[in-house]
Amino acid sequence: MDVMGDMANLFETGRFAQPSDRDEAADEAQEAADEAAEEVRRRLAAEAGDVEAMSVLGAMLLRRGDFDGAESHLRAATAAGDRAAANNLGVLLHQRGYADEAAGWWRIAAVAGSAPAAHALGRHFRERGDEPAAEYWLRQAAEQGHVLGAYALADLLEHRGDETGARRWMRAAAERGHREAAYRLARTLDRNAGQRRDGRDEGDTEAADEAEQWYRQAAARGHRRAALHLGTILEKRGELKEAGRWYLTSAKDGEARAACALGFLLRDAGDTESAAVWWLRAAQDGDGNAANALGALHAERGETQTAERWYRAAMDAGDDNGAYNLGLLCADQGRTTQAEQWYRRAAYAGHREASNALAILLLRSGDETGAEPWFSKAAEAGSVDAAFNLGILHAGRGEERAALRWYERAASAGHTEAALQVGMARLRDGDEREAERFLRCAAGGGSAEAAYRLATVLDARRPPAPEHELGEPAHEKSECEEWYERAASQGHRRAQVRVGMMAAARGDVVEAARWYREAAEAGSRNGAFNLGLLLAREGSEPEAVVWWRRAADAGHGRAALRLALVCARRGELAEGQRWADLAVSLGPREVGERAARLRDALRQELSA
Fold first, then answer.
1. How far is C-alpha 383 from the chain's CA centre?
2. C-alpha–C-alpha distance, residues 95 and 66, integer Å
3. pLDDT per residue over 85-144, tens digit each?
């Protein structure tokens, strides 16, 4: 069916009418006329002595702000025993500033069973500091099903530390549609779920799920902070599209934190320009995090003056990251004095990363004494990098035990290089099992050195390879080989040589040559020497000589001996004697002994 065509026909015939501004104005005029007519009817009935009409007319006039007109009708209805009129009379007197007289009329209405009056009386007593009386009357209202009474009672009980009672009445108010009660109930459930998670209690999923439902209910009723928290929950769960919708709803209602969060969501999606728009909106509303984000964005673009302006705005908004980021900006520009100033400002405010950065700055300037307390402050505040840096500081002084303590602290928080240092310390102590544990952590974190050292530990423990019969698989890769290969693929030269040796042992000459060459080109003298051996066995002695020469020049004694032998075979006696002399000086001992014998033989040959 051609829907657009049908719609066009309906528009043309006038059967599908669209509201216009004129229609809306007519509706408003009709409502005003109806209200005026209702007031006339009520006024006539009130003049005839109708108590209900007096009460309703008084309420109408009170809503309009006609206190003088309302008071006479409300007093007349109250004198006739109308409890709603007594409650409204109390409201009128309270608005006029006669709080005690208002309380008297509220008491009359509340005793007569008016829940709104009981709520108002409870609020009155709480404002006066009489909490027992406030609780009594608020409970009267709440038990009659009054939503505001239930919420006010929950708020009072929460203030007094009665968590069970507060949660019960907050839930009652939330179930009746009170959006602030739904939000506060969700916050309570959320906090409790978080505390259980911190205490390693995994039975908190029901509380977290219930909290989400209350956030959702409050957000659907227009509670902007509930929409923010709901967006945060959904973002953590990976439901980014729905999270963005709630952030947008909250941000449009004026929640700066939601605008900031929406900016980060857009930035991660690649829409930097839209992100900047929301960050700007949040920053202008005083959100320091958004101001920092804008500063970082301009800093990435090289607009350092604009970046500095936003970092200062973040700092003015009370965000210590502003001072820290200003320090980073100055440090990148070589403005060390200003960087130290901003780092100190953030560090004195308790910013742990600023404390660590300040300590590094002081250490680089030679002030080790001034640096150490800031490293300690940052580490005690939870900075993993600062704990690792303290380990380096103590190790540099030869204080191995203190260094190990800080390395262990950083390693327990997942610091890769710290785990490597602990692993190597355990190896030196002979504790191979503990060493393996830490080396695995470091290797899993991406440390090539840890992967290599873990491989050597596993390699030393590996039993000899069994003899294979014909028809059996020639080789099955062991775990230590996998770690060697991981380290080699990350550019670790010794691991590359080791992988080349294992490939050569399997008879895979091409693979062995590839790894030897990669190590040799990266500066490994062992790689160059082994590549030379491989090439010589394959009949490429001229190229082998090139690699042996590179290895010998880098201090490899065996390579120098090989070069001496090649020269002797070619009859280049003086050159051979020179390489033999170098081999004697480089060693090791058995190489030196062989080189000395060769040198003496060449010398005799030359003198003959």
1. 15
2. 12
3. 888 888 888 888 898 988 988 898 899 888 999 999 999 999 999 999 999 999 999 999
pTM of the model: 0.72
What does the DSSP assignment read for 441-452? HHHHTT-HHHHH
C-alpha pair distances (Å), 417 with each of 157, 324, 394, 424: 51, 25, 15, 11
Joined together, the tokens standing for residue 340 give 């130290």
At 490 the three-state DSSP class reads coil
Q: Which two tokens stand for residue 401?
A: 């035990």
Contact 528, 547 (CB under 8 A): yes
* Pair of tokens at residue 467: 């003899």
483 in Cβ contact with 452 (< 8 Å): yes
pLDDT tens readout for residues 157-198: 999 999 999 999 999 999 999 999 999 999 999 888 776 555
Q: Would you state the structure tokens that stand for residue 512, as one six-digit string?
A: 């062995």
The identity of residue 77, as a single letter, is A
User: Tokens 């006039």 — which residue?
Assistant: 61
* Amino acid, res. 174: A
Euclidean distance between the first and final Cα of the chain, in Å? Answer: 113
401, containing H or E segment? helix 400-412
Helix (H, G, I), strand (E, B) or coil at 92: helix
Please say whether the beta carbons of 246 and 219 come within 8 A. yes
Residue 324 and residue 361 in contact, taking contact as beta carbons nearer than 8 Å: no
DSSP codes, 255-304: -HHHHHHHHHHHHHTT-HHHHHHHHHHHHHTT-HHHHHHHHHHHHHTT-H
Tell me, letter by letter, the H, E, C secondary structure of 194-250.
HHHHHCCCCCCHHHHHHHHHHHHHHHHCCCHHHHHHHHHHHHHCCCHHHHHHHHHHH
Q: DSSP character for 472?
A: S
Distance CA 548, CA 563 (A): 7
